[in-house]
Every structure is written in C-alpha cells, then in structure tokens.
Design a protein that fits this description.
Antioxidant, Horf6, Chain A, domain 2; alpha+beta; peroxidase; antioxidant; 8 helices; Glutaredoxin; disordered N terminus; 4-stranded antiparallel beta sheet
C-alpha cells in the first residue's frame, strides 16, 4: 500500500508492485484508472466543514455525489453549492449523500458557507453537507479533478467542476466533468441517479435520451420476447423500423 500524507489528508490506495520502475503507473495514469466507470474509488481521510472524515465510514450504505468546485468565494460556485444544498432533501429521498471538495483552506470553506446561505435564502437549517479541504491537492490528483493545463502546477492548480456518482459498494458509476465556466444542473444530477438506481433494480432496462421517471424505458436487446410477459405484465410496445429489426421495445411497467 502507498500512503500519501498531507495537511489534514491521508490517502490510502493500492499501487502496482514491480522490481522494474519502468512498469509502474504514473500518477496521472493511476488517477485515470482510479476514476473510470466501474472502478473502486479508493478510501481517503480528510478534514471537512463537518469535522474529520473517513470516506468509506462516512459513506456507509449510501450512494454518494462527490463533486469539486474551482474556488470558494466565487460566483458560479456559490450558485452550484447553494442549489445543491437547497435540493438536499431530494438527494436524501434517494439515499444519496453529498460531498464537496476544493483546494481552499478549511476556514475559507467555513466562512464561505455563510455567504452561500445568505445568497440562497431557501437553504433550511444548517448547511446540509460537508466540504472537504484539499490544500495539498493530493485528493484532487488522486480523483482526477485537475484540468490538463494546471495539473503540473500544484501551487496554483484549481479543481474543475468534476462530479462523481458512487454506489454503496464504492464503485464509480457516473462521471461528469464541466469546465470552470459552466455551472452544473441539479435536476440532471437527480435524473441520472434515478436512472442508475432504476437500472440496478430491474437490470433488464435502460433509460433513453432525456428520460425522466414515469416515462418509457428501453428493454435491453438480450431479453428474449418470450420473457417479456412475465417481466412486464402490463405490456411492452415494439417499434417497427425500416431495417425490419425489432430492437426498440419500451415499457412503463416498472
């Protein structure tokens, strides 16, 4: 195991072992492999606005939306963290915990939260989720949250708007990477969570473009026609195509 320690952060992750150093993965390659869909997100410990945090222990049996922002006390980030905080009850309904991260100081996070609450007047009660302080940028590197231009400048590099959805088994299920100029859409985050959880539950469907809960889902091609009545007793629609191939089969029976 390779343990990297910084101020307030301990990262524990597996590393390849070889007598020939030329076969070792670079940090960049390790980060990319780490954060691919289906990979296991490594555990880490860090300081946050809600105290010391051990990621796996904190996650428990919940889903997690782990997201980074470029900097505290900036306008777009204020709107993002504010709107996500306002929507926290919707995430709770879906068994999802929220975790923000940037390379700012912990005290800056704490002070900035007051500004976010002042700007977004509809945040009820205490700020609902922790913000991790990653001053050393160790986590930002491990989680592949730095853009290409800044990744080699550890003193000034800021995190991009990376967002990862992690299932209770610590698997990376979805990633969204936005540039610093573009704020994220909370409704889209909720939509993809609904899709992931539905497809995990049924395992024989996928959600089409722009799908929202209640609308038709697509039945996967490997499902045989003779299986459809038992799987979807309320019915399946089959779409005729010019090719003559029947591969678009939809249902609202879920």
């Amino acid at each position: 195991f390779n343990k990297r320690q910084g101020v307030g952060i301990v990262i524990t992750c597996s590393a390849p072992q070889s007598r020939d150093d030329s076969h070792l993965q670079t940090t960049d390659q390790f980060s990319r492999d780490n954060m691919r869909i289906g990979a296991t997100v490594p555990n880490f410990k860090a300081e946050s606005t809600q105290g010391p945090l051990d990621f796996y222990e904190w996650q428990g049996d919940s889903w997690v939306v782990l997201f980074s922002h470029p900097a505290d006390f900036t306008p777009v980030c204020t709107t993002e963290l504010g709107r996500i905080a306002v929507s926290n009850p919707k995430f709770v309904q879906r068994n999802v915990k929220l975790l923000a991260l940037s390379c700012d100081k912990l005290q800056d996070h704490t002070d900035w939260v007051n500004d976010i609450k002042s700007y977004c007047l509809d945040i009820p009660g205490e700020f609902p989720y922790p913000i991790v302080s990653d001053e050393t940028r160790d986590l930002a590197v491990m989680l592949d949250m730095l853009d290409e231009e800044n990744k080699d400048n550890p003193d000034t590099a800021m995190t991009v708007r990376a967002l990862y959805i992690i299932s209770p088994d610590h698997k990376m299920r979805l990633s969204m990477i936005y540039p610093t100029s573009t704020g994220r859409n909370v409704e889209e985050i909720l939509r993809v969570i609904d899709s992931l959880q539905l497809c995990d539950r049924l395992k024989v469907v996928a959600t089409p473009a722009s799908w929202t809960p209640g609308e038709k889902v697509m039945i996967l091609p490997h499902v045989k026609d003779e299986e459809l009545p038992s799987l979807f007793p309320k019915g399946v629609d089959k779409v005729s195509m010019p090719s003559g191939k029947v591969y678009v089969r939809t249902t609202t029976d879920y």
